[in-house]
Amino acid sequence: MSDKQKPVIFDDENPEWTEEDFARAKRGADMPANILAAFGKGKRGRPVGTTKPEAKKSITLRLDPDVIEAWRQSGPGWQARMNDALRMVMPR
User: Fold this and answer.
1) Model confidence, pTM
2) How confident is the model at residue 2 (pLDDT cuts 50, 70, 90)?
3) pLDDT on residue 7
4) How far apart are CA 34 and CA 38, in angstroms?
5) DSSP structure class, residue 48
6) Contacts for 7 with CB less than 8 Å, ≥ 6 apart
7) CB atoms < 10 A from the CB of 74, how many?
């Protein structure tokens, strides 16, 4: 076996599908209404209105690699500590 080939893993509790399994399978649109309802409607993600107005925002920020590494080396919680440090020096 080459380094790039992954080993075949057999799982008796979740066997690989056969042609017959695929033939019996139903498409999502063909499912009963009660099952479709269980998956809900609408967009993925958090429901509208469930996030607090003061919730943290995700952004893209470019930092030098040594700065990131120094904060990571400071241990778990480094992002919160970086946020606190930025808050102390932010313009008023």
Assistant:
1) 0.46
2) low
3) 72
4) 6
5) T
6) 1
7) 11
